[in-house]
């Protein structure tokens, strides 16, 4: 590798921080990749700390208004995803609870095939706002994630704890569904 002045540069150097040999990717590189990343993070922390000191009013405004706006956004995403997976009915697939958009907080997504414990014994579940955002992105990209259905909280917990919802084993399941579809008497 040659610098613009035409002087050849030795590609093997020692890191200025950890003193380990590394191969340079450009003529100005003085640190190995690990030490460069650590130094970059440290510079970022120093900059952010100074920015917070210099902009206390902005920090207070972000702390005051930032989280509620994020919550509203996640509620919108949650509503869109529930609408998609319930085919705009906003109903539990098991007991037919719901029926309008106001029931969205009580509806949950259920994995039709249960998420099994992995080899390390820890259940790997995606939860939180990242899960909802990923589902929304998949829906918008016309590649919805399969094996998911909408259930109310009661049916979802019963399926989790007892492997089956009590509504499915009742002989009058059809009567319950008809009653829920008509509404209270």
Short description:
Helices cover 48% and strands 9% of the residues. It has helices at residues 33-54, 56-85, 128-140, 153-162, 166-169, 173-182, and strands at residues 12-14, 21-23, 107-111, 148-152.
User: H/E element string?
Assistant: EEHHEHEHHH
Cα distance spanning the termini = 84 Å
Sheet of most strands: 2 strands, antiparallel
Q: Walk across the major sheet and give the strand order.
A: 1-2
> Compute the gyration radius: what is it?
27 Å
* Strand element count: 4
CA-based shape: elongated
Q: What structural category do the secondary elements indicate?
A: mainly alpha
Whole-number tally of structural domains: 2
What is the overall pLDDT average?
Answer: 76
Looking at how many chains there are and whether they match, the oligomeric state comes to single chain
Strand content: 5-15%
Number of helices, where a helix is a run of at least 4 consecutive DSSP H or I residues: 6
Are there runs of 5+ residues with pLDDT below 50, and where?
117-124
Helical fraction equals 40-55%
